[in-house]
Amino acid sequence: MSYYVTTPIYYVNAQPHLGHAYTTIAADVLARHMRQRGEDVFFLTGTDEHGEPVALAAEREGVTPKELSDRNAARFEALMPQLEASNDFFIRTSDPRHGARVQEVMQRVHDNGYTYLGTYEGWYCPRCADFKSENEIAEGNTCPIHHIPLDREQEENWFFRLSAFQEPLERLLAEGSGFVAPVARLNEARAFVEQGLRDVSLSRGKLTWGVPVPWDPDHVFYVWFDALLNYVTALGFGSRDGRDVTDTFWPADVHLIGKDILKFHAVYWPALLLAAGLELPRRLFVHGFLLMDGEKMSKSLGNVLDPFAVMERFGTDALRFYCFREVSFGQDGSVSTAGFEARYESELANDYGNLASRTLAMIARYRDGVVPQAAVDPELAAAFGGLAQEVAALLDRVELSQTLELIWQRVRRLNRYVEERAPWALAKDPAQADALDRTLASLAEGLRAVTVLLHPYMPASTRKLLDALGRPELSYDGASLAAHGWDGAVAKLEPLFPKAQ
Questions:
Q1: CA distance 182 to 192
Q2: Residue 89, SS3?
Q3: Which of 71, 146, 234, 243 is deepest in the core (most CB within 10 A)?
Q4: pLDDT per residue as tens digits for the range 320-360
Q5: What is the CATH number of domain 2-304?
Q6: Which entry of 132, 146, 265, 464 is annotated as an active-site residue?
């Protein structure tokens, strides 16, 4: 089975911030989990390098758009290994291979009769690169996202016959269709379509930084049509061996996007695919914003939390954990340095890190570092019953925060088990040797199982712990509690999440 997950591609008009890391980590959690389940995974991310936002940013800095793109794309690409992102390819839309494939698909759209030449007049946000309809304009003709005055534009453009897809999109976005999640975002997309679709600009005649329109080289494609097609074009040349893997992975299983680009992905994107005769993706999952001071993190607004600084102080796994622990994935939520510190101390250092240290230390002290060959305590086994199946079902629905809470309930259950069984007391009574064996074996097995399940969220720390347990296997077959055979001794492990001094 194959599994294809994508992030949006990120604008290179500014440096990466935590908002970009958020979506990337979410996609990585899904990709790692699916690999554990034996799926053939393709995980795509990258940068959106064309259009007016990039051209304007380059002009302000006195460099060419290509120079700005090269500089900032490198920063985004460098972020991926720091996040422990396991992406299979990083696409740049300035790549000529992408441009050539965009032209192929858009020529098909044109040949199918879904384009025409016309004149656009209306309000435009240069930072969104979006022509705004009347109901998308804030007070004083401003952008509701960037809070800047909108430009009044009039220019000759090629248009896309979006209106031709009114009924197909209504069917696609029907209640309960599951194409867009969460439900609130599906309803938002439906409301946009139900207002009546109008044809939209497909090209810009005033710009040169973009993919040229093959049937009219004086125009370049409007950046969103160029950018959206990356999800298809990347499969043509982005595999590790250079093969075209479109037939293997398309359609995408999950597009992860932020709510500010819902219209483009839930309306324009499926219409464009239908116009080109391509199969539709299976699901869009729309997450909310990480907020600081009540606003979406945005370089243009100046309210950003630097992921590089966060990782330097707390570690990458702590950042990955916090993103889905503090804010329910799919909703808006506030983040802060204080929030990081509280979660790190109470849950990572105490709940999980201390559980790992105590378990390894007790096995070393009471059984010379060897996990006893004993059956798992039935009471603990019952608490873990069905957990692996529940986790898989939740992640199939992209419920990242609910999944983490489900796993964390078992982390806490293991901590309670330590207190209930009090191995230090059992060790004092030779008559309780069997009970101590069962307790230590159950703790080791429970810790191993939750660590396998936590691996997609915290890959580096979980690898260290599984290695220390002498059980490095990550396969999802090992995610359930069982009387696995333990060979060899456990190793000493430095604190996974050392407390700040």
A1: 16
A2: strand
A3: 234
A4: 999 999 899 999 988 877 888 899 999 999 999 999 999 99
A5: 3.40.50.620
A6: 146
